[in-house]
Design a protein that fits this description.
Elements (H helix, E strand, L loop, with lengths): L12 H23 L3 H10 L8 E5 L5 H5 L7 E6 L2 H13 L6 E5 L12 E7 L8 H11 E12 L5 H23 L2 H13 L3 H10 L3 E8 L4 E7 L1
Helix pairs in contact: 1-4, 1-6, 6-7
This protein binds S-adenosylmethionine.
Length: 239
């Protein structure tokens, strides 16, 4: 897979991603709402409904401003932890949790998907929303998710896609190249960030290749599902 980085080809992808999300953190939620026409909330709810093992402990990797972690509350777990490498995204997430009075129930932590600070076989379910294509090392992150999941624990991954539907693929390329980059720039004044968003979605691997990565990490019953005519990829896998 071609490695797309936000700013330059020399620095590590990880540090560029961290500073990019730090930079756009204050506008991230509003832009998410505008650029998905509010649909991201529905996608998260539908995705969470696929977690059918009554999880007690949930981990949300690349939690950002904690929207997926908040959506997971619906499953009535005992605890939810969100991790992210961007301090500023976590800061916004923590403010949101406080406003919603969820700060004692959902805990956010700075940590890297490639090196999770948790013991083996700890979580019952893991979610990763719009995070995977930003990882420097996808395989390492997936095997870390496997390590910290309990046996029969569920991994759920959501990513935007331009590859599932030929007709929509033309429209979504237009959407990402023209709409996302321009609206993103207008609101965030960070043209690299929203160019990166567009380029990284287009360059991301297709469903079959991603299923192979899950398979190689020893996940079982791996499934590729699609929402909204294939503009959203959902991956479901069991340890
Ligand atoms: C597009 S945001 C998604 C945020 C949130 N999950 C959501 O659904 O809105 C991607 C997030 O991934 C985080 N991220 C990127 N690489 C990471 C890594 N290696 N470990 C943890 N978080 C990472 C970024 O800092 C950013 O907050």
């Amino acid at each position: 897979m071609k490695k797309i980085k936000p700013y330059n080809s020399t620095e590590s992808k990880r540090s560029q991603i961290e500073s990019m999300f730090d930079d756009i953190s204050k506008r991230y939620d509003n832009l998410n709402q505008i650029l998905t026409f509010g649909l991201h909330k529905k996608w998260r709810q539908r995705a969470i409904d696929l977690i059918d093992n009554n999880p007690e402990k949930i981990l949300d990797i690349a939690t950002g401003t904690a929207d997926f972690a908040i959506a997971a509350k619906k499953l009535n777990p005992k605890s939810i932890i969100g991790i992210d490498i961007s301090e500023k995204m976590i800061e916004i997430g923590n403010k949101k949790l406080k406003r919603k009075n969820l700060n004692n129930f959902i805990r956010l932590k700075i940590a890297d998907s490639q090196n999770l600070p948790f013991e083996d076989n700890y979580f019952d379910a893991i979610t990763i929303g719009f995070g995977v294509r930003n990882f420097e090392e996808i395989e390492k992150s997936i095997s870390e998710a496997y390590r910290v999941l309990k046996k029969d624990g569920i991994l759920l991954i959501m990513e935007p896609s331009t590859k599932n539907n030929k007709f929509l693929s033309f429209l979504s390329k237009f959407y990402f190249e023209v709409i996302v980059t321009n609206i993103g720039y207008l609101f965030s004044k960070n043209s690299s960030a929203y160019n990166y968003l567009s380029e990284s979605v287009k360059a991301f691997i297709d469903g079959e290749t991603f299923l192979k990565i899950l398979d190689e990490a020893k996940f079982k019953n791996c499934k590729h599902l699609k929402f909204s005519f294939g503009i959203i990829d959902l991956y479901w896998a069991k340890k």
